[in-house]
Every structure is written in structure tokens, then in C-alpha cells.
Amino acid sequence: MDGVFKGNYKKGGIGGIFRDKSGNCILGYKMPACGYTSTYMELPALKSGLQIAKHHNFLSLEFETNATEIPQLLSYNNYSLYSNLVNECKLLLKELENPLIRHNFREGNRLAHVLAMEGDKQPSSTPLSAIFHPPDIFWNLIYRMTKLEHLLLD
């Protein structure tokens, strides 16, 4: 999951990808969003992902974010600027049997980032879009990433 943020306009987008244990994309999501910081934008992306996981009864989950602050915010009971969203995410995490939330470098989060950028391009009134088949914009990126993964593994 990922959030993108354009600081001058407080506008951005959120997006995420669900994959099976083999790494195949099974569902994506995107939506425009507003926020005040890049860290804040990651939280609605996580919350939306958690809501989708709950709705589709996805089990054995792991969530990855390129924002190192998110796992920290969820681990401590600090009352920050983000406390409402953090508490909503914590409740959803508990309902989903506390899946792992871990940091992933930006390079490993490219597909979610592309969806978040697509969400940013939508009018602000656009609701969350679930994507069951990767859109055309993904095919080239998926091909390049798969080719790179094979080079690294060989």
C-alpha cells in the first residue's frame, strides 16, 4: 500500500495491491485523498487495504509500506496528530488477527505507488476503486519487475 502527497495542494492519492503467496496480483485499489503530510497519506492507504481485506475475508496477510513511521505509529500508544486514523487501523488490524505490517523499500512498492499516483489523478469526489485485473499501465511495469527479479535470483 502507498500514499502519494503533493504538499502545496494537500492533495494526493492512495493505492495498494493484494497478491497471493506466489506474488500474483489478485486485487488492487486506488482513490484520491487529502492530507497534510506524506506519513498521513500512508494511513488512509492502510485503512482502505484493511477494509478491503476484511470485506473479502483475506487471511494470512502481510502489509508492506515504504513509510518507516507507520509500523512505529501502530506499535505505540502515542497520541499524535494521526491518532484517529491510527486507532481505526489498530481496530481493523485486531479484527484481522493482527497481520504483520512491515517496511519495504520504495523499489518493492512500485505497483502500489503507481496506483496511488493514478488515484491522485482522479477528481476528489471519486470513491475507492477496486481493480480485479491489472490495468494496462501495469503490464510494462510488471514485465520489467519480473525480469529484474529473475536476474537477481539467477
Automatic annotation (TrEMBL):
Signal sequence annotation: none
SUPFAM superfamilies given in the database record: Ribonuclease H-like
Domain of life: Eukaryota
Segments forming domain RNase H type-1: 2-117
InterPro entries linked to this entry: RNase_H-like, RNase_H-like_dom_plant, RNaseH-like_sf, RNaseH_domain, RNaseH_sf
GO molecular function annotations of the record: nucleic acid binding; RNA-DNA hybrid ribonuclease activity
UniProt cross-references to PANTHER family, sorted A to Z: OS05G0353850 PROTEIN (PTHR47723), REVERSE TRANSCRIPTASE-LIKE PROTEIN (PTHR47723:SF23)
Protein name in the entry: Uncharacterized protein LOC104223422
